[in-house]
């Protein structure tokens, strides 16, 4: 089950009585909790299924701002990395899901998107949650449907 870590706060030479703090670590997201109950609650949460994999072409939905030209643009790039399970993210839930109760309290994933700024050509990487981007479909909708049906990627 969960990993129990005992920290000894304060150095050996401290006059004050050393405080022993027990930390409980969620085995899914590695978040440290001071309460066993909170840790157990986190471990019970499901993990969001990955919606994209490294190399997938994606478009970030929210406009990015080019710091060189002060202009906004739509970033298109490729997934550079997919995180493991992360603890439920309040901003994610509220901003992107409107706090919908059916999606609350789930371990989430973060996706790195590597792209080139279309304004100044700078190579950038931005980390987003699943609702913040769409996977680009190649060719027509018909073609991608066919590819999907036969299991052929791209
Ligand atoms: Zn967790
Ligand atoms: Zn730029």
State the gist of this model.
18% of the residues lie in helices and 32% in strands. It is α+β, with helices and mostly antiparallel strands and 154 residues long. Strand 2 and strand 3 form a beta hairpin.
Strand and helix map with partners:
Blueprint lengths: L2 E7 L9 E7 L6 E2 L2 H9 L12 E4 L3 E3 L4 E3 L2 E7 L7 H8 L12 E7 L6 E7 L3 E3 L5 H10 L4
Antiparallel strand pairs: 1-2, 2-3, 4-7, 4-10, 5-6, 7-8, 8-9
One zinc ion binds next to helix 1.
The secondary-structure element order is: EEEHEEEEHEEEH
Major beta sheet summary: 5 strands, antiparallel
Number of strands: 10
What is the gyration radius calculated from CA atoms? 21 Å
Provide mean pLDDT, rounded: 83
- Binned strand content: 25-35%
For the largest sheet, list the strands in their spatial order. 9-8-7-4-10
Indicate the overall shape. Answer: elongated
Distance between the termini: 41 Å
Poorly predicted spans: 139-154
Total discrete domains: 2
Helix-strand makeup class: alpha+beta
Helix content: 10-25%
Count of helix runs: 3
Bound molecules: zinc ion
Question: Care to describe what's here?
Answer:
This protein has 2 domains: 3-44, no CATH class; 57-150, no CATH class. The strands form 3 sheets. A 5-stranded antiparallel β-sheet has the order 9-8-7-4-10, with no helix packed on it. The protein is an alpha+beta fold and 154 residues long. The longest helix is centred in the C-terminal third of the chain and has 10 residues, at 141-150. It is built from 3 helices and 10 strands; from the N terminus they run βββαββββαβββα. The structure holds zinc ion (2 copies). One zinc ion is lined by residues 66, 68, 117, 119-120, 122.
């Amino acid at each position: 089950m969960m990993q129990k870590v005992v920290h000894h706060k304060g150095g050996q030479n401290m006059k004050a009585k050393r405080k022993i703090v027990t930390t409980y670590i969620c085995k899914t997201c590695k978040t440290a909790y001071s309460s066993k109950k909170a840790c157990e609650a986190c471990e019970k949460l499901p993990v969001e299924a990955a919606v994209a994999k490294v190399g997938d072409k994606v478009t970030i939905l929210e406009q990015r701002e080019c710091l060189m030209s002060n202009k906004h643009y739509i970033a298109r790039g490729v997934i550079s990395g997919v995180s493991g399970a992360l603890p439920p993210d309040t901003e994610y839930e509220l901003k992107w899901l409107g706090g919908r109760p059916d999606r609350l309290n789930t371990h989430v994933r973060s996706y790195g998107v590597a792209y080139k700024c279309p304004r100044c050509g700078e190579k950038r990487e931005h980390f987003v949650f699943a609702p913040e981007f769409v996977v680009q479909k190649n060719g027509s909708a018909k073609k991608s449907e066919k590819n999907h049906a036969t299991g052929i990627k791209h």
